[in-house]
Amino acid sequence: MLFNAVNFSLGKLAIGDIRDALTTSFKKRNLSVRLSVFVLALTCLLHNIAQAAASDALTEEGFATYVASLKTEAMNKGMDLDKLEEAFATITFRPTVVKSDKNQPEKKITLDDYLATRVPDWKVKQAVAKYDEHSTLLEKIAKEYGVQARFIVALWGNESNFGKIQGNYSVLSALASLAYEGRREKLFKDNFFAALQILNEGHTSVDALQGSWAGAMGQTQFMPISFLNYAVDYDGDGKKDIWGTEADVFASIANYLSSEGWNNKGTWGRQVKLSGAVPFSGLAKANMKPLSFWKQNGVTRFDGSALPNVDINAALIMPDGEDGRIYLVYDNFHTLMKWNRSSYFGISVGYLSERIKRGY
Question: Does 79 map to a domain?
Answer without folding.
Answer: no
